[in-house]
Design brief:
seven-stranded mixed β-sheet; 2 domains; alpha+beta; 34% strand; globular
């Protein structure tokens, strides 16, 4: 019988020995140590499944933050198909206890897990082609999901989740003389104010209620200093106010040896009064300049399928839909599109 225990200081050396024989599965060609292990797995949320022959699998699980609360995220490194299925038994128990509607995960087309997941009932929802580069060859980044709803003895979907869950406010649109520059720490107060407008946070993955979004300044400084966040802001030259921001985050978990070393994810926010007034266009134009100067190859993003204005903007710049994924608690239960743009 398989045994489940959390990763701890007592067993971390055994876990590292297991993972380091399969590091390509988690997206790197270099071995991990006690520090870099947690670049790929979540501290305090990672578990080991062991059997008669030793460790069978290592996995992390976490609840999606913000509006992704109905989804449980999973990252797994398994020795075999049977080992993955054994781990899924535990993961499903957790998901059903937390009333999750779906499980989501991702892997690479070179990894055996992509076949094992499909045989275990997972659906392939999105594909970023040629995202991973392993030893001089391209491979796809694959996103999967598992529908848990039929496993409940009750209707796990909330009846109150409908169009009225979030509402927009009427705003007077404004024009601006847009100047795009790098983010300064002094900009964060204005960006925090912008993010707390219902017309803005309703379309974001995070944010439940006006006034409850706080920007962790120290964390942002740490990310920028570590080269894990590259942000630009749009400033109105007329009055000096910040009216939007765009960021690139490396998809690579470590600065060297990661198969996603030249892939970045994009996030964008535009103040409610300036949405549809060309600010987003200017931000994306300058972001593409920044991305090329950083030698990026692919930019990815995730957007609510109901956010048609944003999707049209992204498509104007050559982003294409990679697939559709569950699930966000927005104006109803909303799915999202994974999108990407090839720069070369």
């Amino acid at each position: 019988m398989s045994k489940l225990v959390p990763v701890s200081e007592e067993n971390i050396d055994f876990v590292l020995n297991f993972v380091n024989t399969k590091v390509e599965k988690i997206g790197t060609v270099l071995p991990v140590d006690k520090k870099t292990f947690y670049d790929y797995f979540l501290r305090g949320k990672t578990f080991v499944v062991s059997g008669k022959e030793g460790i069978e699998s290592v996995f992390s699980i976490s609840k999606f933050g913000g509006k992704g609360v109905p989804v449980l995220w999973m990252r797994i490194c398994a020795a075999s198909k049977v080992a993955l299925e054994n781990a899924l038994t535990f993961i499903k128990q957790v998901a059903l206890t937390m009333e999750s509607l779906y499980i989501r995960t991702a892997t690479f087309s070179y990894a055996e897990e992509c076949e094992w997941l499909e045989e275990a009932g997972f659906t392939r929802g999105a594909v970023i082609p040629k995202a991973a580069c392993l030893k001089g060859k391209f491979y796809d980044l694959l996103y999967y999901y598992y529908d848990l709803r039929s496993l409940y003895s009750f209707n796990v979907e909330r009846k109150y989740v409908d169009e009225n869950l979030y509402s927009l406010k009427p705003v007077e649109k404004r024009k601006a003389d847009v100047v795009v520059r790098g983010l300064r720490i002094s900009d964060l107060g204005e960006l925090e104010w912008i993010s707390n407008h219902p017309n803005v946070f309703t379309t974001m993955g995070s944010g439940y209620y006006e006034g409850l979004i706080w920007w962790n300044r120290q964390r942002i400084i740490e990310l920028i200093t570590a080269g894990k966040l590259f942000s630009l802001v749009a400033q109105n030259a007329i009055d000096g106010k910040i009216i939007g921001t765009i960021s690139l985050e490396p998809r690579a978990r470590r600065p060297i040896g990661d198969v996603l070393s030249n892939v970045y994810s994009m996030g964008i926010i535009v103040a409610a009064e300036y949405q549809g007034m060309g600010v987003g266009t200017r931000l994306i134009e300058e972001m593409l300049v920044l991305a090329k100067r950083m030698h990026a190859r692919i930019i990815t993003l995730e957007v609510f399928e109901t956010n048609t204005n944003a999707i049209k903007l992204y498509e104007k710049f050559g982003f294409v839909k990679a697939g559709r994924l569950p699930l966000w608690l927005q104006k109803g239960y909303v799915w999202s599109y994974m999108m990407y743009k090839m720069l070369s």
